[in-house]
Amino acid sequence: MVSGYCDERFLDAKEILEKSIDSGFELGCAISLEVKGEKVIDLWGGYVDTDKTKLWEEDTIVNVFSTTKGVAAICLLQLIEKGLLDLDKPVSHYWPEFAENGKENIPVRYLFCHKSGLCGIRNPLEPGSFTNWDLICNELAKQEPLWEPGTAHGYHALTYGHLVGEMLRRIDGRTIGEYFNEEIAKPLDLDFWIGLPESEFSRVTNIYPSKPNPLLPLLAKLPRFLLPGPMKFLLDFTDTNKPVGAAFNNPPVNSNENNEFEANSKEWRKAEIPAANGHGTARSLAKLYGVLANGGSRDGVHVLSPDTIELGRQTQSDGKDLVLGHMHTRFGIGFMLGTKNVSMGPNPESFGHGGAGGSLGFALAGDYRIASESAKILSAHFKRGFVPAGGATYILPRLIGLGKTQALFFGGKTLNSEEMLEWGLVHEVVSDDELKQRTMEMAKQIAAGPKTALAETKKLLLESEGLSLDEELRREREKNRDSGNSGDAVEGIKAFLEKREPKFE
Q1: I need a labelling partner for 290 at 20 to 30 A (CA). Which of 72, 163, 347, 419 fits?
Q2: How distant, in Å, are the alpha carbons of 239, 284, 313 from that of 470?
Q3: Quick check: pTM over 0.85?
């Protein structure tokens, strides 16, 4: 199911990918990693359709959503390095129409670190409007900020790309998609696009979103003073006068005028939306960031100087995010930086940008769960205006009960490792240094066990809800009859009689 290359040092990652796909948690995906300029992981697997008729191939490309923001930032950092763009000059110096409604003194710097107050558009927009570049830029130019620029930051989920992209167009004359393709993608041989040519459409996998939250219509009928903070924030998601509503819901990008998921449409793929519609492969992103991690040049191709890279990763915004449910975020010049809420890995020097995807459900879907002492867990979807995903609404109530699940989702509670153990979210807690070793020990232990019995036991557990004891006893008898005829059962009994450990196939 999984193809490609994996250095023996990183076989753990391959095992995790294989299990994620085999279990059905991931439909299809790819991962790629460079270390000191050397490609050590380049793997892909699964399917590109829910019917599982078409495999994810080596050249399959996918919409990476907000990961595009980091790619866009690299384009603008090149202009800064060339002396064509000054972070501390007013945006209106390059874009005169921008000076309306008190925005004449907003510095360029604020566009990159989400401080401009233009996280979204107040004026109601028709579905599909984000594919109309001039419309969005005109709306941003004439709009009053949603908060006083520079006093706070809030994630510019979609408008970020039009703001920085229009800056590039005003200075260079090219669109940001044209610039990236000619100055970065082609020289580095990257299979990545901002504005996908129709010639590449046959390689694109669709995105399959979760269903909208059914609670919204009900909550909207209640007086706001009766609602706890997290639920008030959820209602703000539909109010375009509020930062989160303007950022994510005007217009809604979960559907177009034909009630289709917009990110799968031809119009979305062809358009240049530098905050959200980059399409490409994992290996292309690994190569691009691999170049930046190793001085900024490769094979005679210069991307950024070390000084410019350092500029890009210097903190510009740090604290509560007005759009993302007041969670802690940190941004440099276009790059996302790590916080306790947003992991960029263990290295504090890391930088880049994540995109839509990832979920609480992934961490909790295993057969045996181990946490390090420093681990913490929270459900961030609700805080950000989204519903839980990855099977969390199915898995969590079965693990810890409905009441604790509600506390985790709606109460915004962050659990430390001991609380996770107490609540039943994990089976054991180990020191940070022991986590990898203990996890691999348990993974190998489970993997070495009887495959048939493991699969059937999991089915019994997952399918038992709602059944009577008699019904479950009947199912157990049937499964034991079937497993008793397997080679694993024969080996298990034989090993017991011979007083040795079994060796299952």
Answers
A1: 163
A2: 51, 55, 61
A3: no
CA distance 292 to 304: 7
List, in order, residues 6 or more apart from 484 with CB less than 8 Å away: none
Locate 466 and state its tokens. 């709602």
- Can you read off the two tokens belonging to residue 450? 């009887």
- Give the per-residue pLDDT at 119: 93
Spans of the chain, pLDDT less than 50: 357-365, 384, 390
CB within 8 Å of 199: residues ≥ 6 apart: none
Secondary structure tally for the chain: helices H, strands E: 23, 15
Task: Give pLDDT, residue 195.
Answer: 94
pLDDT at 255: 54
Kindly give, in sequence order, each residue whose CB lies less than 8 Å from that of residue 78, ignoring residues fewer than 6 positions away: 183, 184, 303, 304, 308
What pLDDT sits at residue 162? 96
DSSP-derived 3-state class of residue 105: coil
Domains and CATH numbers, the chain: 1-60 (no CATH), 68-337 (3.40.710.10), 363-447 (3.90.226.10), 450-497 (1.10.12.10)
**pLDDT value for 357:** 44
Q: Which residues contact 400 (CB under 8 A, 6 or more apart)?
A: 408, 423, 424, 425
Going by C-alpha positions, the residue among 325, 332, 478 that lies closest to residue 409 is: 325
Cite the beta strand spans of 69-158 per DSSP E: none
E strands, 332-437, where? Answer: 336-337, 370-372, 376-377, 415-416, 428-430
* 455-486: pLDDT as tens digits: 677 666 656 666 677 777 787 777 777 666 66
The whole-angstrom separation of Cα 16 and Cα 443 is 10
- Which amino acid, one-letter code, is at 28? G
Number of residues that this document lists for the chain: 505
